[in-house]
Design goal:
This protein is an all-beta fold and about 60 residues long. It has a domain of about 40 residues. Helices cover about 0% and strands about 40% of the residues. It is built from no helices and four strands. The chain has a four-stranded antiparallel sheet with strand order 1-2-3-4, with no helix packed on it. The chain is elongated.
Length: about 60
């Protein structure tokens, strides 16, 4: 699994030849560019960060 929002700007190497670069296009769009075939560009919707569940910590009361 690939976490796109964390890996923007990274170049991933798949196998011996294929290199995929992750580019950010806008706040809701992520683009994957394949180096061996520059015309092949895959656009994906970026996961919205605000949809992540908020974690609330309960304060421990000292007795």
């Amino acid at each position: 699994m690939l976490i796109l929002s964390r890996n923007i700007g990274e170049t991933l190497r798949i196998g011996k030849e294929a290199e995929i670069e992750i580019e950010a296009v806008s706040h809701d769009q992520v683009q994957l560019r394949v180096h061996s075939a520059p015309q092949a560009v895959i656009s994906l919707p970026a996961p919205a960060r605000r949809k992540l569940p908020k974690v609330r910590f309960k304060r421990r009361r000292r007795v």
